[in-house]
Amino acid sequence: MAATKPVGARAPLATTSWGRTGRVSARSTNVIRVCFVLGAAIIWESLSRSGLLFRDVVPSLVAIVASMGKLLVNPAFYANLQVTAWEVAASLAIGGVAGIVVGIVLGSNKFLARAYEPYVYYLAPTPRIIFFPVMIMWFGVGIASKIALGALSCFFTIALSTAAGMRGIDKVLIRVGRTFRATPWQMATKIYLPAMSAPVLNGVRLGFGTAVITALLAETKLSNQGLGFMVMQIYARFDMPTLYGLLAIVFLIAGLGNLLLGKIAGGART
Amino acid sequence: MARAASPLMTRGLPIAVGAASVIGVFGLLEALLRLGVVNRYIVPLPSDVLLSLERIIVEENVLARMRETAYEVVMSGLFTILVGVPIGAALYRWRPLRRALEDWVAALAAAPLVLAFPLFLVMFGRSSTTVIVMSVITGLAPMILKTTEGFVATRPVLINVGKSLKMTDSQMFWKILFPSALPLIFTGIRLSWTFVLISVVGIEFLINLGGLGQLINDLAERYDLPGTYAAICFVILVSVVFFVALERLETWLQPSR
In chain A, at which end, N or C, are there fewer CB atoms within 10 A of the end residue's CB? Predict the structure, then answer.
């Protein structure tokens, strides 16, 4: 007689590789990361040495690292970095302040939000670089036009994040402020800004990314200084290892800036 | 008892005020320009910009340019889905891989990748291929991240139902996981296609090639002020219509949300 299952016993679940849970150790994560980087490096170097591709398109990693070293001891790199950093900082300061003010106004007044927020919301995902000719006409070909374009880029993201953060503030805090007859300035500095620091900082982090991209792209289009200008100069010389090296350094700097702002935003959240 | 405000007052009035303010700002600008307070060599008359819209549509071959931009956007968008969804699914399936690489993919989304356009010019030449490849790379990160997020958000009870029915890996994917992840995959498509449009128009403008981006560059180089402003307004209009259409499509495809 075949064995029968006891009544009420659970049938074993099918073993499937989907939906598995469980801890992944930090060590295995690091091993995968190292393997990924090494694998990519080996594939790159093999392609470079194979002769299958034009050598200048895929230069040797040794040449790229050497060019990065040369860039890091080149005073021109730091001069251009300083210009770009100044442009991004000024963009973020102007666009950030304007974005926070507009965000607070839109977030605190339903009527104004319904009247004007759709314009901010739908203009936010438009390609900002197309405004560059207008910025050149208004502010000239110097760094002012790059700052204006960067400020315009980060304004929308910061304004929308601030408005959303404003609407998320606990109503009790607002009532407490009103009970104490706080002035609009006191409400903004003592209640609104501290209560919505996390979404505002998150907006600033996203705004930083768009300001960096826009300022760099504007420099590639029309400029005589900055890292974007340096990229175009190197491209014109067809010095591919240095171009790869410079791009790697720029990505690293942008990534570190983003990481730092992310940590600050994370700290505000907790 | 307090009466509820009518929808016309709560919704219609603010919209009318918003539209009236925009028209008012342009009216004021027109007046300031005509009075000579603002320099016409820097800001053209809004009425001239409005009239130039017809001129650029007729004389600058806007429809053909739009077709070119649309082709690049659609191709880039489709490649983004074809590449991004499988990578997102793979990151969900192999958790250690997700733990190791998810942060890097997120960092990719914030990196100024478009700055690498000179590299792609060397690789693919000054052609649509450069625009498409760069735009795919730009739109890939949100597609991957939202796809993974969609799979991760699958309710465990659904996975357990699949397991108790002894579903195979393939059945589990197509009958449980993929349908469950679809809403967030659509969000990923909306985000990545928005990134793609920004990238396509931006690169066209930067390398002076092809569709709507080149139109702005051409007109600016000719110092055709009303034309440049009209072309910028036109591109903004196209972007807004594209964005609204994506939003509507997303809502239509997932009515439960």
Answer: N
Looking at beta carbons, which residues of chain A come within 8 Å of B216?
A: 130, 133
Closest listed residue to residue B196, CA positions, set B125, B131, B112: B131
Nearest CA in chain A to B218: A133
Please judge whether A127 and B239 are an interchain contact, meaning their C-beta atoms are less than 8 angstroms apart: yes
Query: Of the candidates B42, B99, B159, which has its C-beta nearest A138's C-beta?
Result: B42
- The residues spanned by each domain of chain A are 68-269
Instruction: With respect to residue B119, please indicate whether it lies within any of the assigned structural domains.
Output: yes
For chain B, how many structural domains are there in total? 1
Whether chain B has a CB inside 8 Å of the CB on A9: the answer is no
pLDDT in tens, chain B (257 residues): 455 566 666 778 888 999 999 999 999 999 999 998 988 888 999 999 999 988 888 888 888 899 999 999 999 999 999 999 999 999 998 888 888 888 888 888 778 888 888 888 888 888 899 999 999 999 999 999 999 999 998 888 988 888 888 888 888 889 999 998 988 899 899 889 999 999 999 999 988 888 888 899 999 988 889 999 999 999 999 999 998 998 888 888 765 55
Q: Which of A116, A209, A247 sits opposite B115 (nearest CB)?
A: A247
Within-domain flag for B55: no
- Residue B179 belongs to what domain range? 60-253
Contacts of A248-251 with C-beta under 8 Å, sequence gap 24+, read A248/A64, A248/A68, A249/A68, A249/A71, A249/A72, A249/A77, A250/A216, A250/B112, A250/B115, A251/B111, A251/B112, A251/B113
Is CATH 1.10.3720.10 what the domain over A68-269 is classified as, yes or no? yes
In this prediction, the answer to ipTM > 0.90 reads no
| B236 Cβ contact partners less than 8 Å away, ≥ 6 residues apart | A123, A126
Residue B205 sits in a domain whose CATH number is: 1.10.3720.10
Nearest to B160 among A13, A126, A238 (CB): A13
Q: Kindly state whether residue B208 falls inside one of the protein's structural domains.
A: yes
Please give the biggest Cα pair distance in chain A: 94
List the one residue out of A256, A241, A236 whose CA is nearest residue A71: A241
The answer to whether A115 and A175 are in contact (CB under 8 A) is: no
